[in-house]
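Reopening this one. Same input as before:
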Amino acid sequence: MDIGARRDLRLLEAVEEDSRVTQRGLATKLGIALGLTNLYLKRLVRKGYIKCVNVQSNRLSYLITPRGIAEKARLTYEFIDYSLHLYGEVRQHLRAMLHECAASRCRVAIYGRGEAAEIAYLSLKEFRLEPIAIFDDEGGGDDFLGMPVRPIAEHDQVPYDVIVVATLDSSGHQWANLINDGIPAAKLFPLRQIPGNGRRLPPAAVRR
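Same output, byte for byte:
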């Protein structure tokens, strides 16, 4: 499922949940700029998935149309299918590393807190492993499955052996950024294979 389809699904879900939602409210919910929200909404209006309603002379609200409801159902099915496929792919990729971690009582941390991090967390639980820490760029409190999220800058304060890089970015940019932040490459393990990175297991981390 591409980024555009996922964005459309989130917009349609938000409009259906709140018939009085405004552009500003949608921008806040989706975490994107107001100008981008305006462009995306206009696209959905042109396709007939939502319609504008004049609430006041200076205020527009948005409603999902029957055609939009049908499109949301289609995208939801596509998202579920995509998620199941992704979970299977990630689980297979992580299996060897997690098996060795479970056997050697290796301490595993997770970088990220979105959908990809949830998949990584479920994979750890299958091997009866608990993440020693959850990292993200900024941190920000107890907002990942009840666990505190720490800024990645604090990685040197946690005695981890492996960090699962829980991002779906396949470009390798995030991997490079983490190394620039001072994390040894041998302690990083991608959620999915990174082009040009043929290493399957982080030997220095897993085989302590």
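So the earlier flakiness isn't reproducible anymore. For the record, Residues 3-64 form a domain with the Arc Repressor Mutant, subunit A fold (CATH 1.10.10.10).
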